[in-house]
Write a structure and sequence with these properties.
This protein is mainly alpha-helical. The radius of gyration is 15 Å and the shape is globular. It has helices at residues 5-18, 28-44, 46-52, 55-60, 63-77.
Length: 86
């Protein structure tokens, strides 16, 4: 399910806080459009992601659990550390 406009704004603000120390050669408006693009992509490709998961997980996990899995994998792939205790 796609994010609401408010949730997309939350992602936009969080991204700016997280990436604050890194040089960003794009404007806030360009970033906000990229948030929309990423959310739209996630919505369109949800079925493909679901199919990629092993059957036991796919059939037993909720949509929220599957999204959390993808988010954590992407977070680590982005070179971000996971908090201790997770």
């Amino acid at each position: 399910m796609a994010l609401t406009s408010e949730q997309r704004d939350q992602v936009w603000r969080a991204y700016m806080r997280i990436i604050d120390a890194e040089p960003c050669p794009f404007t806030k408006a360009v970033l906000r459009t990229a948030v929309d693009n990423a959310d739209d992509w996630a919505d369109v490709n949800a079925a493909s992601f679901n199919t990629a998961l092993n059957t036991a997980f796919r059939t037993n996990a909720t949509a929220t659990q599957k999204a959390a899995l993808l988010a954590l994998v992407c977070w680590v792939r982005a070179g971000r550390p996971l908090a201790e205790g997770l």
